[in-house]
Write a structure and sequence with these properties.
The protein is of the alpha/beta class. The protein has a domain at 6-124 and 144-183 and 237-244: Vaccinia Virus protein VP39 (Rossmann fold, 3-Layer(aba) Sandwich), CATH 3.40.50.150. The protein has helices at 6-9, 26-33, 45-60, 102-112, 126-135, 138-141, 152-160, 186-196, 204-219, 222-235; strands spanning 16-20, 37-42, 69-74, 87-93, 113-124, 175-182, 238-244. Helix 5 (126-135) packs parallel to helix 8 (186-196) and helix 8 (186-196) packs antiparallel against helix 9 (204-219).
């Protein structure tokens, strides 16, 4: 279940891609299938071990092009262990809302992106997220949970200013290239979960809607694909912003 549009990101075979906050690896796997040189980065060693195992299985089963590479790296988003301009493309999907010093994390992402490179950042969309917070404090008060709700203007402002020098001059100020929304079918599921209890997986409404989402993900029926296209711009749970780092003059 992808949030980022890889064609819009502009990923090409052989390019180096950082999936920052990779989690279970869904975007890293897709980048690997497309022939990229992928680094899945996260602070959770257990999740990264699972990602590495799947990387190996993908290669053994011939799911990736010849020459594609993939690896994992554990670390802190505020101190990325990579050189300046090391990556052609960066994805940070559903991670910044968990990080207290989000501006510092964004600056690190800008630093390791090469001039001319592109970056996709996704976060929970404002309206669906506000409804979740109103319905349940348990949804966001858990350790490691969401600590803020972004508007598009706030996040665009933080990212486009992240490459500026301390005196305010442009430097490598990022260029905003557009936004999209994703997972319109998923927002009502989380509203149900927040209403009946985030951990109440046995509630009939939650179970029924979960079965619908599993059907969507596994079978991709045309009816649900069309429903998603209609709902994404209206109540899509995720907002995706696309940026480009200016080329060196």
């Amino acid at each position: 279940m992808l949030t980022v549009d890889f064609d819009r990101l502009g990923l090409r075979p052989g390019e180096r891609l950082l999936d920052m906050g990779a989690g279970g690896g869904r975007h890293a796997f897709e980048a690997y299938r497309r022939g990229a040189d992928v680094v899945a980065f996260d602070m959770d060693a257990d999740e990264l071990a699972g990602v590495l195992e799947i990387f190996g299985a993908m290669k053994e089963q011939g799911e990736v092009p010849e020459g594609a590479n993939a690896d994992i790296k554990q670390g802190d988003a505020l101190e990325l262990p990579f050189a300046d301009g090391e990556f052609d493309r960066i994805i940070a999907a559903e991670v910044l809302e968990h990080i207290h010093a989000d501006v510092d994390a964004i600056k690190e992402l800008v630093r390791v992106l090469r001039p001319g490179g592109t970056m996709a950042i996704s976060v929970p969309r404002w309206l669906p997220e506000v409804i979740n917070w109103k319905l349940s404090s348990e949804y966001h008060d858990a350790p490691g949970g969401h600590i803020r709700i972004y508007t598009d203007h706030e996040l665009i402002d933080k990212v486009t200013k992240a490459g500026r020098f301390n005196d305010g001059t442009p430097g490598d100020a990022m260029i905003f290239e557009g936004k999209a929304y994703a997972h319109g079918l998923h927002a009502p599921y989380w509203w149900i979960k927040c209403a009946v209890g985030v951990n109440n997986d046995d509630h009939p409404a939650a179970k029924a809607y979960h079965r619908l989402l599993v059907w969507e993900i596994m079978k991709q029926p045309r009816a649900l694909q069309l429903a998603g296209k209609v709902l994404d711009p209206l109540i899509g749970k995720s907002m995706v912003l696309y940026f480009r780092k200016p080329d060196v003059a």
